[in-house]
Amino acid sequence: MISFPILAALVLTQPAQPVARGAAYLQAAVVLSVQRSGGINHRVDPPLSGTVPGLSASGGGYVSRQIAIEGELNLNADLSAPQEFSYFSRDDYVVHNRDIALGANVRVAGRYLDVVGGGGWAFTETQNTDIVNTSGFGTQTVTTTRPDVTWWKRGWSLNGGVDVPVSTGRAQVVATTRVRWTRRPSADLDYVGVGAFTFQFGVGVRLNSSAKRSAAAQQSPARLPWSPASATAATVAVP
To answer: CA torsion sign, 56 to 57 to 63 to 66?
Structure first.
């Protein structure tokens, strides 16, 4: 996938210092979702696939030095294309598919990047619009328009990927990549044909809480500003 060379380049060009992290954070990203085609009923052609923009938002807090728990909302824009259904008559229409994922993730923070994974519910809105039905044979065909049809599906969703902060400070620029799996109906019932896997990459902003230390400070023991040794060194003997 194109996202992995981009991610590798961002890792190589990020600051030399370890990433600073807050106790809590909010992250939002603009993403591109590459949706592959999947199984489809043999009377429908072609299966739906393509690339659409989307938004991803998450927020959470660290429960240990490296482990954070977060909630996530992922919204994909409408993916649409002409499609045809044929049986005793033929329907020509525009099919639409839009996925919304809501769930929880575990974030494992490394020195320079985070590994993220989790799951939850996926809600899929599917529409058939601009439906034109053609029935009959030869010169005895009849063409009629039909009303739009909309239905919703719900299924399990899983995701995993990597976030790479490419700047330091309280507000950080983050490169993100994900692989998402959505449980879809069987091919005999799902007349859309979108595959279960979606590959996603994008760029966002992470806002860390103000109570934070640098990653270097987090990895070294705390040092008191005053200690008996320093006091002794600073003592001047008086004869």
So the answer is: positive
Note the pLDDT of residue 21: 79
Q: Are strands 44-45 and 79-86 parallel, antiparallel or unpaired?
A: antiparallel
**Residue-wise over 189-207: b if at least 16 C-beta within 10 A, else e?**
ebbbbbbbebbbbbebebe
pLDDT at 195: 92
Give SS3 for 129: strand
Task: Give the start-end residues of each E strand in 38-137.
Answer: 44-45, 50-62, 67-76, 79-86, 90-109, 114-135
Report the candidate in 32, 52, 108, 101 with the shortest Cα–Cα distance to residue 72. Answer: 101
**What whole-number distance in Å separates Cα of residue 148 and Cα of residue 31?**
29
Q: Which of 159, 173, 168, 182 is nearest to 202 (CA)?
A: 173
pLDDT of residue 22: 82
Nearest Cα to Cα of residue 35 among 82, 79, 70:
79
Helix H segments across the chain? 3-13, 215-218, 228-234
Tokens of 183: 């449980």
Cis peptide preceding 46, ω within 30 of 0: yes
pLDDT in tens, 183-210: 987 766 667 899 999 999 999 999 999 7
Q: Distance between CA atoms of 175 and 7, rounded to whole angstroms?
A: 7
Q: What is the DSSP letter of 77?
A: P
User: pLDDT (tens digit, 9 = 90+) per residue, 139-168?
Assistant: 788 999 999 999 999 999 999 999 999 988
